[in-house]
Amino acid sequence: MKVAWLGHTSPALGGGMATYSREVVARLRRRGHRVTFFQHDLPTPTEAPPADADESVLLESLPVGHRLVLSSLAARRKLRERLERRDFDVVHASFWFSSLDFDLPQACRRAGVPLVVTFHVAFDQRLSVWSSLTSATYRLYAPTLAACDRVIVFGASQRDVLVEMGVPAEVLRILPNGVDVEVYRPGPSDWKERLGASLLFAYMGRVDSEKNVDVLLRAFLDSAPEAGVFLVVMGGGGERKRLQRQYRDPRVVFTGHVAEAATRIELLRAADAFFLPSSVEGLSLSMLEAMACGTATVATDVGVDGDALRGAGVVLDPRGLDDQLRLAIRALIEMPWLAAPLGAAARERVVERYSLERNVDALVDIYRELAA
Amino acid sequence: MRVAWLGHRSATGADGIITYSREITNGLRERGVDVLFLHHARDQVDEEGSIALDAFALSHRLVLSPPGSKRKLLDLLRAQEVDLVHVSLAFSSLDFNLPWICHELGIPIVATFHVPYDTRFSVWRGITAAVYRLYAQALAECDAVIIFGAAQRDILAGLGVPRHVIHVLPNGVDVGRYSPGPSGKRAELRAERVFSYVGRIDPEKNVDVLLTAFLDADPPATARLVVVGGGVERRRLERRYSDARVLFTGVVTDERERIDILRASDAFFLPSSVEGLSLAMLEAMACGAATVATDVGNDGEALRGAGVVLDPAHLESELRATIRLLVETPALCELLGRMARSRAVERFSLSRNLDALLSLYERLAESATVALQR
């Protein structure tokens, strides 16, 4: 099958989205599908490798700023021309992609190619600043999504939000992110010895304000952990420098963005617990990766993270986050034996529901259904 | 050995302080100690080995001894030829005279001090600190002071009680009787998940906070919170929290039924603001219920590492989060329950603690004899 894939590889727009595009494309190709990767010419950190595709098409974008991509008229034309050459069986876009998003259904219809969209936009149903921001984004996207042939969402709560906004239920498919459970799996790691840690906690993801890394850091230090207890913050982002200055403590380690998957995996394997205290999420890939590595997982009940983790980890209510994080940290320090069974439960959950292979199987089924 | 036990007794009460006296005296008798139980419960028929003292009891926790009691007690102890006196404090307004009475008779005196305390800033802290100061002088005169946890030792030592007289010898539970096992309660309650509270329903127990947190966590219809016990707050709470998922049983005097409830419990909650070392908590732990308690008195120390210890300053939000987690993760309850059980067996076994108490008695009686012979 010939697939036009529209996605990002820059972690600046969300490491999870970049990983999603890269991993799914790689697996489609491994199964013999031909993938043309369309991406914007974003300033990409050197450590981010280019996507491995049969063909890469760069689309020009206008520099607007952080996490907002405005495509140029030239890019729009280039994409249209390529689609109208009719050498694709399906177009798959990972949203948000750029300002092109809103033209895509029409462009695909004109070219006679079915359009599948993965809607990654984080959400939270609770009343909050983020909630109103994300619900505005959802409302903005709803008419476009309604015009797609298939829209892939992460979970039932996300589907319900979109149905309420007028996206037909028959278009929506629940197909959660997946991780490669063979690569991300429990195993030996010497990071605790290297850090001199008796107990190791980890955060992995962008260090941006909605991720509440500051709340995590505060709760961690408030719990007054003894000297051997470490919190490793993996990831770069808008808040990193400020936090690194503010929370200068020998028990806190900022690694910056860890480009190499092998290192990330080693750190996750070494960690006794993984924390994801975000205010908004879709389905966090870093959470699934941590779970797959058998790390006890603590995350807020936002997006579909709560649904994914419930019963296999510690789900926190985003209201009163401070208190709950402190409690969770204290409990894990006082009862270090909790980490192993919670980690095993997390691993089991990911293998059962969030395996990438299974996810790609289901995706190919969707492609076939549309191409037929 | 003949021991005069001054303690609390009641036909109806299920209070920890009453249970303590009952369990210890029964255990000592089983070990061949001749126990004379002196108490204030006038409603109890005097049976062999127990004598009710004249007193004006405001409650079993607040007892005023009438004038002349001091002399009467002294005569009684002499006539009964006891080898040792053990008082479970607070006993009565005689408490402060007891060490001197015993010194006069040349009998060693052991005091168990289970006045609850909390080291955090709170209304309770002021009250308990005053009580500790009040008792410190009398405790310093005892031959041995028994407390339930190491945290108390520093407080008492700071108030002038010599460290060498202080012995950490916690309450214990009969870990054979209080043990995990089958229970018909779950079926009887038609519940899939059972959470429980056992204890007095008085303001300092924060049962209202537990009820609020439980209902806020919005547990499924098949979850139950069983509140066992009576107290000044019971009626008000029962009216206010009328919900199909909440059950008030009142006081359950039948021990077997209490054990049945604990065995059926996935989790046990003790959200008190003040505690000594809660026997109800130890019993729940021994029955293998996942245990959640505030870090007050010795409870935090007893549970830490084997259960969820809550910060009383953030009680409501921590309770809510814990309840939700335990509702969502039944496997966690099982695991925590196993850990609680092994902690109870390891540190709070009644028979082990009775053995330790008996050897303390023997040491004290021996040195008293040596002193008399000189």
Written overview of the protein:
With 372 residues, chain A is α/β, with parallel strands linked by helices. Chain A folds into two domains: 2-178 and 355-371, Glycogen Phosphorylase B (Rossmann fold), CATH 3.40.50; 191-353, Rossmann fold (3-Layer(aba) Sandwich), CATH 3.40.50. Chain A has 14 helices and 15 strands. Chain A has helices at 15-30, 73-84, 104-111, 129-146, 156-164, 191-195, 213-222, 240-246, 261-270, 285-292, 305-309, 321-334, 339-353, 356-371; strands spanning 2-6, 34-40, 55-59, 61-65, 68-71, 90-95, 115-119, 150-153, 172-174, 199-204, 229-234, 252-256, 273-276, 296-300, 314-316. In chain A, helix 8 (240-246) links the parallel strand 11 and strand 12. The longest helix of chain A has 18 residues, at 129-146. By secondary structure, chain B is of the alpha/beta class. Chain B folds into two domains: 2-172 and 349-373, 3-Layer(aba) Sandwich (Rossmann fold); 185-347, 3-Layer(aba) Sandwich (Rossmann fold). In chain B, helix 11 (299-303) links the parallel strand 14 (290-294) and strand 15. In chain B, helix 2 (69-80) packs parallel to helix 3, helix 7 (207-216) packs across helix 12 and helix 12 (315-328) packs across helix 13. Classes of the chains: A alpha/beta (372), B alpha/beta (374). The interface between A and B is medium-sized, with 23 and 22 residues.
